[in-house]
Specification:
177 residues; 8 helices; mainly alpha
C-alpha cells in the first residue's frame, strides 16, 4: 500500500499543473459509466460490417459491470485514496463506490482489447484513449495504481474471453456454420 501512495504523490509532484487540472477531468468523464465505449459499441453495432464487434464490446462491458463493479468492488471494499486523504483537492465529484478495481480502466481495457483484436490498426486509437482514461483516475486521486492495474488485468481477461468465446458462440449457435 505504501507504493500506491508513493506513486500517487509522485504523479502530483511531477505533473500537477493548471493544464492537467483542466484536462484530466475531461478525459475521465469519457469513461464515466463506460460511456465512450458504449457509444463506440453502439456505432459498431449499427454498421453491418462491424456488428459482431459492436455486440462483443457491449457484451464485454456488461460482463465487466457484473464481475468488476458488481462483485469484486463490493467484496474487496477498498476505500478510495480521496476518502482517506481528505486534504487533497479532488477536481471531480468524489465517487461513492469502492476503489478496487478501477471500473473506468476495466471498461476501457475490455473495449480496447476487443476492438484491437478485431482490427489491429484501430488499436492505435483505442489503446491510447484507454490509457489516458486509466491515468486520469490516478491523477484525479480517485484510484490507487493497484486499482488501475487490477482493472487493466481484469479488463484484458474479460476482453479476451468475450472476444474468443463470444465469436465461438456466435459462429456455432447463431450463425450455425
Amino acid at each position: 500500500m505504501a507504493i500506491d501512495w508513493a506513486i500517487l504523490d509522485k504523479i502530483q509532484s511531477m505533473l500537477s499543473s493548471g493544464f492537467m487540472d483542466w484536462l484530466m477531468p475531461r478525459i475521465t468523464v469519457l469513461g464515466d459509466a463506460g460511456i465512450i465505449w458504449i457509444i463506440i459499441g453502439i456505432i459498431l453495432l449499427l454498421c453491418k460490417k462491424h456488428r459482431r464487434t459492436g455486440f462483443l464490446v457491449l457484451a464485454g462491458l456488461f460482463l465487466g459491470l457484473i464481475i468488476g463493479n458488481g462483485i469484486i468492488k463490493n467484496v474487496v471494499a477498498r476505500p478510495r485514496p480521496c476518502w482517506l486523504d481528505t486534504d487533497f483537492n479532488v477536481l471531480i465529484s468524489v465517487p461513492k463506490d469502492f476503489s478496487f478495481p478501477s471500473g473506468h480502466t476495466q471498461a476501457s481495457v475490455i473495449a480496447a482489447t476487443i476492438i484491437t483484436l478485431y482490427r489491429k490498426e484501430w488499436g492505435w486509437i483505442v489503446i491510447p484513449l484507454a490509457t489516458a482514461i486509466s491515468f486520469s483516475r490516478l491523477y484525479l486521486y480517485v484510484h490507487y495504481p493497484t486499482d488501475v492495474l487490477g482493472g487493466a488485468v481484469l479488463g484484458v481477461i474479460i476482453g479476451l474471453v468475450t472476444y474468443y468465446a463470444g465469436n465461438k458462440i456466435i459462429d456455432t449457435v447463431i450463425v450455425k456454420k
